[in-house]
Helix-turn-helix protein
Amino acid sequence: MAAPTLPEDENARRLKTVLLEDFAQDLGQLRKAAGLSYTQLAAHAFQSKTSLYNADHGKTFPTWEVTAAYLTACGEDDHQPWKRRWARVAVALGRRDRRPHRSRHANSADTLDRPPPDPNQATTVAHFIDSMSELRSWSGMTYRAIAVASECLPRRIPTSTLSDLLTHRVRLPDEPLLASFLIVCGLNHDDQQPWFTTAHRLRLGTSEPPATHHDGNQQWWTRRRIAIAALATAAAVALGGICGAQGWMPF
């Protein structure tokens, strides 16, 4: 007799839907921008019109081979962000082929092993926010997906809040929001550390990266940052679903 399975968390179902819808919609925008009909797209991509139509209407989740062919046909040369997004959706959907195989359409520089952006060199609030934007792109998470995923964390991140933060680039996120953002983007505990340290440095008005020694204030901040990150991570694991042991976050 098979072991019983737990019912899927509502947030997990919503995240799957949002990731698939956003992925399909953005593919469709590429086709429209390129001015291609499905007949023309199929001719350039060497794929069937049905598979391409289903891909950008969210009816089915395309293989990476189909996705790469779609991108190339639309003139999209940089496959790296799309490959990470594809892998993110594949993980959420439980696809067995969650790590894309190299295809004849893939750029030789494509890799899923590229490290996340490093915020340590940020000297202004705007630079730090730019690094957050790069991290969001690196993670493959859309604004809507971040909003849904953060609902199981101590600080929810509404789409409007994140859009305002990343667009205006004039203020640092508060500590709980930053913690939720880093977790949703898939950073582990060690990778989160420089983000908290840099944000604290900028709040103190220090533009240059700190020296290697740590004063008492820095030690206090380190303890505080660890406590915040631990709280958010513990909540993520405890709540299960999309933020638990299903492994949708980090690659």
